[in-house]
Design a protein that fits this description.
With 279 residues, the chain is mainly alpha-helical. It has a domain of 117 residues: Serine Threonine Protein Phosphatase 5, Tetratricopeptide repeat (Alpha Horseshoe), CATH 1.25.40. The chain has 17 helices and no strands. The longest helix has 9 residues. It is elongated and about 80 Å long. It starts with 5 loop residues before the first helix and ends with a helix. The mean pLDDT is 96. Keywords: ANK repeat, Repeat.
């Protein structure tokens, strides 16, 4: 018979082997080369019976792998709803972890609607920003994931729709930059500030960033929601100017038809016609 350690046994749902290895003296909280314990493996693979057994025999429910992920965060990322229920029932930690995330951030980052519902019922802060270097709230994560249903749930649960991350990105700015038209529409319908600026990106607006990244449907939608078509960034450049810099004829046409001023000059004295005539 091929040798099987406790990590493999937990991952392959072999409860008999797990019991035998523990009875033979295997440390229940020992981690593999990645810091994964038997509990991490069982949670990742959705093996409820083994998870129950491990927890009832001393497994650390909040053990950290080498990237500081706990079992509950793994369950959220994987979308194992019953596993989340089980870990919560065994009183796992739901607060900010050493990696700067809560389980709610993990669930939102993978678009796990049903898990988000469970976590919100447990009282997790819908506006808590992660501490891992981005300052993303759950709404930022759900927007980045392009999960319309998660965005809708979080907004209706009281998420601050205009909250900025540490780089000054609001959810609307992220959605506009990625071309997520339905999320842009949803955020605007729920009173997102259409001209919210991103200070770290030269005071650019969602309209400017959508123009830069060539998202015509988003540009049209933003303008139809009264985005300031003449707003300028720190360089004195409007969305039309940005489209000209990119030689984007379709975007230029859209913006001109929407009334954008073609007689503009940036802070360097360059005119729109100068940009269009450059090689």
């Amino acid at each position: 018979m091929k040798y099987m350690d406790i990590f493999q046994a937990a991952a392959h749902n072999d409860l008999v082997k797990v019991k035998n290895l523990l009875n033979a003296g295997w440390s229940i909280n020992r981690g593999d080369e990645d810091g994964y314990t038997a509990l991490h493996w069982a949670v990742q693979e959705g093996n409820l019976e083994i998870v129950k057994y491990l927890l009832e025999h001393g497994a650390n429910i909040d053990s950290l792998d080498h990237e500081n992920y706990t079992p509950i965060e793994i369950a959220c990322l994987k979308g194992h709803k019953e596993m989340v229920d089980l870990l919560i029932a065994y009183n796992c930690n739901l607060e900010l972890n050493r990696n700067g995330f809560t389980p709610l951030h993990a669930a939102a980052a993978r678009g796990r609607v049903e898990i988000i519902k469970r976590l919100l019922k447990k009282g997790l802060n819908v506006n808590e920003q992660d501490q891992n270097g981005t300052g993303y709230s759950p709404l930022h994560w759900a927007t980045q994931e392009d999960s319309t249903e998660c965005v809708k749930l979080l907004v209706h649960s009281g998420a601050n729709i205009n909250l900025k991350d540490q780089y000054g990105f609001s959810p609307l700015y992220i959605a506009a930059s990625e071309g997520y038209t339905e999320i842009v529409r949803l955020l605007l319908r729920n009173n997102a500030k259409v001209d919210i600026i991103c200070e770290e990106s030269g005071n650019s607006t969602p309209l400017m960033i959508a123009s830069i990244y060539d998202h015509p449907d988003v540009v049209t939608l933003l303008i139809n929601h009264n985005a300031d078509i003449e707003a300028k960034d720190n360089e004195g450049r409007t969305a039309l100017f940005q489209a000209a810099l990119n030689k984007n004829k379709e975007m230029i046409s859209i913006l001109l038809k929407k009334g954008a001023n073609k007689n503009i000059t940036d802070i360097h004295g360059k005119r729109l016609v100068d940009i269009l005539n450059e090689d």
